[in-house]
Write a structure and sequence with these properties.
Helix content: 10-25%
Radius of gyration: 22 Å
CATH topology of the domain at 43-210: Nuclear Transport Factor 2, Chain: A
Order of helices and strands: HHHEHEEEEHEEH
Number of strands: 7
Distance between the termini: 69 Å
Amino acid sequence: MRPRRPALAAALILILGAITTGCFNPFRPLISAQTSQVEAPPAPTTAINVVRLFKWCWENRNITFYRQIFTDDYRFAFAVTDSAGNAYRNTPWTREDELVSAQNLFVGGSATESPASSITLIFTGDLKSERDFRDGKRDSTRHRTVQITNLTLTVTKSDGSGLQVTGGALFYLVRGDSAVIPQELKDQGFVPDINRWYIERWEDQTSTGQAPQGAAAPAAGGQLPAPVAKPAAGPAVAADFPQRLSWGLLKRTYREP
């Protein structure tokens, strides 16, 4: 019997066509032109793991999993010296604020800022879970803290500019059977679960950062400073260095309509 070469050739053409269009890579099926997610998201089974999932969400710009890690009574506390948080001293930053800001940064952009095209988040040192000494939160089996003393967040925006946050963060975590679970998650089947943890509070300890010499400082009203060109040899200049700002300023800027 003669081999069915036309059928084999047609199959090869289909595979090569899929590769060249970027729709599917048969040799590495987790990689395609549509996603940068290679590693599976960490399961938030411990206080440390929910912080790892938080990091994963930022680096993969994944709003779906990000919606699942905050309690209904979640609060973000701006650094005391961060003027970007002035509007939230009496009216706190809530889960809704967090998700709107993240959605705009990860995916859609805001009225004034383009979305991220890539994000890296580096924690220096090992993550350690400690006791929560706040009143009413001292049951160490249900409430924990994770202090990050040195982090670097780098955001590359789709317009080619860059933003950078450095400093620390303090997370307060709560076990699922003591968490105030958002109704949105209850509707999806989330229940009080001793094997799941949530972020209840996040205290920003990042520096507002001094912009490089000649650059504008972050605006007090919460808007990002205008890009400043980096001097270069010869007549050409390029704004190729990341602007320094606090995490609070970054979040508030993308929360603005």
